[in-house]
Amino acid sequence: MNVAIVGASGAVGQEFLRVLDQRNFPIDNLVLFGSSRSAGRDYTFRGKQYTVKELKHNDDFKGIDVAFVSAGGGTSIEFAETITKHGAVMIDNSSAFRMEKDVPLVVPEVNPEDALDRPRGIIANPNCTTIQMVVALKAIENLSHIKRVHVATYQAASGAGATAMAELKKQFEQLLNGEEPTVEKFAYQLAYNLIPHVDVFTDNGYTKEEMKMYNETRKIMHSDIEVSATCVRVPVMRAHSEATWVETERPLSLEEVRQAFAQMDGVVLQDEPAKKVYPMPLFVADHDEVYVGRIRKDLTNPNGLSFWTVSDQIRKGAALNAVQIAEYLLKVGNIR
Ligand code: 2RA
Question: 130-313: which CATH topology?
Answer without folding.
Answer: Dihydrodipicolinate Reductase; domain 2 (3.30.360)
